[in-house]
Write a structure and sequence with these properties.
This protein is α+β, with helices and mostly antiparallel strands. The chain has four helices and nine strands; from the N terminus they run E-E-H-H-E-E-E-E-E-E-E-H-H.
Length: about 150
């Protein structure tokens, strides 16, 4: 896994996954598959996913987080900007929290030598607070890798 890099407004995470791009793209876009892998024991789990997979189509994810004897729930949603299976997926990312602006998530997949290089870029993170709040991509790409390499 390539270490996370950040710029003034983006977080970038890369990983090489031993699975075809088609398999990875399906895991990123099929609600049933998202529910199976977008989870980390005792930290968070996806409890609902909706995907209208087309440019202009809407998506929503409801995530439950766990900690300090209470559950907290967050909703993230947006609109698909680019849907080019199996190599590129771009969508807006809006957290339903006060003061969280619309940002953009971009997935680029490229196959090479039996593996797929996966690069996720979350941009529009205009301050350190937003970058810190959205810094979990290292965990997400690892969960994706574990799921599709099973």
């Amino acid at each position: 896994m390539t270490p996370r890099s950040t710029s003034n407004d983006a977080i970038v995470q890369e990983i090489s996954i031993n699975a075809p791009a088609e398999r990875i793209f399906a895991a990123l876009t099929d609600p049933d598959e998202l529910l199976r892998w977008w989870r980390m024991d005792d930290q968070f789990r996806l409890v609902r996913a909706l995907c209208d997979l087309r440019p202009g189509g809407k998506w929503t994810m409801r995530v439950k987080g766990f900690g300090d004897e209470e559950q907290r729930e967050s909703i993230v949603h947006g609109v698909y900007v680019t849907v080019e299976p199996p190599f590129q997926l771009i969508y807006t990312w809006i957290r339903e929290e006060e003061g969280h602006p619309e940002t953009t998530v971009r997935w680029d997949l490229s196959e090479f030598e039996g593996s797929t290089r996966v690069r996720v870029t979350h941009s529009g993170l205009i301050n350190e607070g937003l970058r810190a709040r959205n810094s979990g991509w290292i965990f997400i790409v690892r969960l994706l890798q574990e799921y599709v390499e099973e």
